[in-house]
Specification:
The complex is a heterodimer of chains A (349) and B (499). Chain A has 349 residues and is mainly α. In chain A, 72% of the residues lie in helices and 1% in strands. Chain A has a single domain (23-332), classed as ABC transporter involved in vitamin B12 uptake, BtuC (Orthogonal Bundle). Chain A is built from 16 helices and two strands. In chain A, helix 5 (85-101) packs parallel to helix 7 (136-155), helix 6 (107-131) packs antiparallel against helix 12 (224-249) and helix 8 (165-171) crosses helix 12. Chain B has 499 residues and is an alpha/beta fold. Chain B has helices at 43-50, 73-78, 96-100, 115-129, 144-157, 174-189, 201-207, 230-238, 292-300, 322-327, 337-341, 348-353, 369-381, 398-410, 428-443, 455-461, 484-491, and strands at 5-14, 17-27, 32-36, 58-63, 66-68, 81-84, 162-166, 193-197, 210-215, 218-224, 256-265, 269-277, 281-286, 307-312, 315-316, 330-333, 416-420, 447-451, 464-469, 472-478. In chain B, the strands form four sheets. In chain B, strands 6-7-8-3-9-10 form a six-stranded mixed β-sheet, sandwiched between helices. In chain B, strands 16-17-18-13-19-20 form a six-stranded mixed β-sheet, sandwiched between helices. Chain B starts with a strand and ends in an 8-residue tail after the last helix. Classes of the chains: A mainly alpha (349), B alpha/beta (499). At the A-B interface, helix 1, helix 10, helix 11, helix 15 and helix 16 of A face strand 2, helix 10, helix 11 and helix 13 of B.
Chain lengths: 349, 499
């Protein structure tokens, strides 16, 4: 180590990157800029994009993805993954529909039972991963098939659609005086809660620690398995909430509700800059990525781009999401190297 | 005579940190050459340049006097340079022979691997080395010493002319070190050049003809071993006099803090019982594999145990639950700081405050300020040398990393400190600081259980020496009676003293 770095007294926090540069150099910023660019370009070139109706629709599309992406971000940061979320949505929809069909008419009870079911389904994943020590990828591919299968057992090919019109209308109702669906407020509150949990609590600190090195986390007194178990439970419950929203938004409970939604969620989480290997990433990027994916998809749809092309775009973004953050990190590293002396001299003595 | 391998004026920087500045080295055939220096002196970086892992920013690598550029480790190996790292990197499920010939297996027709030839050549290599390892056995389960011998056999198999050994003895027992050295001497006499990196001076003086000392990334001096003394080398390394390496202060032991009773984990240790009083430093000595670290891990709760119990201040600890051990005042500084002690990618700040994240939070919230202040305070107290506390600990030298681990645990104000190999792989200056710190903690009433493989450290620091042999506690020797001989006798199972 160089003497001049050694001469620095220990304990100084030292200068960090000046704020603008730190922001500009981050993947979050890249996503926000890309989002703004897509919004502006699409609004200028595609008929219908930019209208209040368009954004209302985008918000409704984004809500279930974002709801699940919140806990999924935490799960992926710890180095795990949950691919069963869309099937959890489907099974929750089926059970909710069947309960209504069988005469359960209390809305709070229906919602409560749905969330409980989601938590139990998440706990099953959690038990396989933490108690039996199986890889979450394999476990949740299994439950992806299992939960979807159960959804068909519960409801078969039927659709339950005879809910009180007030429920289905209220689910997508706007905040008075705006076009923004009120459920966005629920999402926002949950996003803040997850954000606080991740960035400003001891639990959040431990998530990053165990994602980087589970063994060192254990040696630091972090209950790694217990924490992961509860994350799977939370993911299940959030998927169930998305299921409730899904059912009333489309006024239809079907066993195949939300099929394939897990790909949209995982794509958003990875595009949001969360490392698939764990230990890196955050919620700001993930929420920006959800918005980017949904806006882009809907704008392209309005521009009459064929569905095949849409799939290609999503796939390309997913690849970019893995390459992009690494590229940004490498670039920042190079910046830092190019100005070594400033960093050292800038350290207060 | 031309040196077989030389470095001239090599500079290498990582970001803001200049790891090497005008580093020099000359290796001749038929010599064993020691490279010594404090941690952070640039030894590892120099090795990585020789191995082709890094390229130098300036300066040259000369092979037989001609400049060469190693683009990758394969180039260096093709040039006849073999590096044996402290932690051998074998494929555990492949056989020893397959490990040695990985990627270069002898072939028969149709590209099939010739297993018989591979086995025969492996046997030849082992015969040359004078070791007995079955070529067909899997690498899993080999002792570290045997794994290193396999690595050396691998080096021989492609006729390495330069053998670099980066702290090969750190995890070895005395007998194993002797075996390794016998092999090294034989290779040297066959005309290989050996670069030997070690913090153990007795080994340097036993094996090497010349010594190169580095400090702060610079070449300081190269000299014949005959012109040097241990004290002189240490002074050159640290640039100052190092007095009293082991300053254990006399303390009056207080009440019993830690009680371990009948602790058993099948396959690792059986019926281990002992106590540690406040103010006492108790060493747990023994050969590698005797079960010492496993006992330490069980006390802290990282591992479960089959029988027995652990009590702190009279209260029984829940087995297999580190958080309750921490709450009871137990701290464990683990053996492997890179894998267990620290989360290398996280900052000094985050690492140093990880066990106290709940204590530092308010109403369950943690906004960074309290972590920053606490980390700054402890980094200052332990003199962690770092540019910024927000830097990842992976950017620090080994000694400074160990200080961060110590800060992390001392900040919890432990009542029982279990410390596993407190000074492994760290430099002399930091070593003395760590010892001073342990002594001071004991004086403040902490019960210290120290697992150590270094006898001078054990004898210098401990009030009592517990010795383990093959999973059993075989001796409990008070400070006054402990000497190298009776500890080694107990550790090797020659003496079944009353425990």
């Amino acid at each position: 180590m160089a003497p001049d770095t050694q001469a620095v007294p220990a304990g100084t926090t030292g200068p960090r990157w000046p704020l603008p540069r730190r922001l500009l150099g981050s993947w979050d910023a890249v996503l926000l800029i890309a989002l703004a660019a897509v919004v502006i370009v699409a609004a200028a070139s595609v008929e219908g994009v930019g209208s209040p109706r368009f954004y209302r629709f985008v918000a409704l599309e984004a809500i279930p993805i974002a709801l699940i992406a919140l806990p999924m971000t935490l799960v992926v940061i710890t180095g795990e993954i949950d691919l069963s979320v869309a099937s959890t949505v489907g099974l929750t929809c089926s059970v909710l529909g069947q309960l209504w069909h069988l005469g359960v008419t209390s809305l709070p009870l229906l919602i409560g039972l749905s969330l409980l079911l989601g938590a139990v389904l998440g706990a099953v994943n959690g038990v396989f991963v933490t108690v039996f020590g199986l890889p979450s990828l394999a476990v949740t591919i299994g439950t992806l098939a299992l939960y979807r299968g159960l959804a068909y057992v519960v409801l078969g090919d039927r659709a339950v659609a005879d809910y009180p019109p007030a429920w289905t209308r209220n689910a997508v109702a706007p905040i008075p005086g705006t076009v923004v669906p009120w459920f966005v407020l629920v999402l926002a509150a949950l996003a803040v809660a997850f954000g606080v949990l991740l960035y400003a609590t001891p639990v959040g600190r431990s998530l990053y620690a165990m994602g980087n090195n589970a063994e060192a986390a254990t040696f630091s007194g972090i209950a790694v398995l217990r924490t992961k178990f509860w994350l799977f439970v939370a993911t299940g419950a959030m998927a169930a909430l998305a299921g409730v929203f899904w059912t009333f938004r489309f006024a239809s409970a079907r066993a195949d509700n939300a099929t394939g939604l897990e790909l949209a969620v995982v794509a958003a989480v990875l595009l949001g800059g969360v490392s698939i290997f764990g230990g890196r990433g955050g919620l700001v990027g993930v929420l920006a990525a959800v918005a980017l994916l949904v806006v882009l998809r809907n704008a392209l749809q309005l521009a009459s781009v064929p569905a095949n092309t849409l799939t290609i775009v999503t796939g390309t973004l997913l690849i970019l999401s893995v390459v992009g953050p690494n590229l940004v990190r490498a670039t920042r590293e190079r910046w830092r190297r190019r100005r070594p002396t400033t960093t050292v001299e800038g350290t207060p003595s | 005579m031309l040196p077989v391998l030389a470095l001239t004026g090599v500079d290498k920087s990582f970001g803001a940190v200049a790891a090497l500045r005008d580093a020099r080295l000359e290796l001749f055939t038929g010599e064993a050459h020691a490279l010594v220096g404090e941690n952070g002196a640039g030894k590892s970086t120099l090795v990585k340049i020789l191995a082709g892992v890094h390229g130098p920013d300036a300066g040259q690598v000369l092979l037989d006097g001609a400049p060469v550029v190693f683009g990758n480790p394969g180039d260096a190996r093709a040039a006849g340079i073999a590096v044996i790292y402290q932690e051998p990197t074998l494929f555990p499920d492949l056989s020893v022979a397959e490990n040695i010939f990985m990627g270069r297996q002898p072939r028969r027709g149709l590209g099939r691997i010739d297993a018989a030839a591979m086995r025969a050549r492996t046997s030849d290599l082992f015969a040359r080395l004078g070791v007995r390892i079955d070529p067909d056995r899997p690498a899993r389960g080999l002792s570290i010493a045997d794994q290193q011998l396999v690595e050396i056999a691998k080096a021989l198999s492609f006729d390495a002319r330069v053998l670099v050994m980066d702290e090969p003895t750190a995890a070895l027992s005395g007998v194993e070190v002797e075996r390794l050295f016998a092999v090294a001497r034989a290779l040297r006499d066959d005309g290989a050049a050996i670069l030997f990196i070690s913090h153990r001076f007795d080994e340097v003086f036993a094996l090497c003809q010349r010594v190169t000392v580095m400090r702060d990334g610079r070449w300081i001096v190269t000299d014949e071993i005959g012109n040097l003394t241990v004290e002189g080398v240490v002074r050159t390394m640290v640039g100052r006099d190092v007095s009293a390496l082991f300053p254990k202060l006399a303390t009056t032991p207080a009440e019993v803090r830690l009680e371990v009773e009948g602790l058993t984990r099948r396959g690792f240790f059986q019926d281990v019982s002992f106590t540690v009083r406040g103010g006492e430093i108790v060493a747990l000595a023994g050969l590698v594999g005797a079960g010492r670290s496993e006992v330490a891990r069980a006390i802290f709760g990282v591992d479960r145990y089959d029988a027995g119990e652990v009590r702190v201040d009279g209260r029984r600890l829940r087995p297999g639950d580190p958080p309750t051990a921490i709450a009871a005042g137990v701290a464990l500084v683990p053996e492997d700081r890179r894998q267990q002690g620290l989360v290398m990618e996280l900052s000094i700040e985050r690492n140093a405050t990880l066990p106290r994240r709940w204590a530092l939070s308010r109403f369950g919230l943690l906004f960074g300020g309290s972590e920053r202040r606490s980390a700054a305070q402890w980094a200052r107290r332990l003199q962690v040398k770092a540019a910024r506390n927000t830097d990842a600990v992976s950017t620090l030298s080994g000694g400074n990393q160990q200080k961060v681990v110590l800060a992390k645990w001392l900040s919890t104000a432990p009542r029982v400190l279990v410390i596993d190999e407190p000074t492994r792989g760290i430099d002399v200056g930091t070593k003395a600081e760590v010892h001073r710190l342990l002594s001071q903690l004991a004086a403040e009433g902490v019960a210290v259980l120290m697992v150590s493989s270094e006898l001078p450290e054990v004898l210098g620091m401990a009030d009592r020496v517990l010795v383990m042999h093959e999973g059993r506690l075989v001796a409990d020797i008070p400070r006054g009676e402990a000497d190298e001989e009776n500890v080694m006798l107990a550790a090797t199972g020659q003496r079944e003293a009353a425990a």
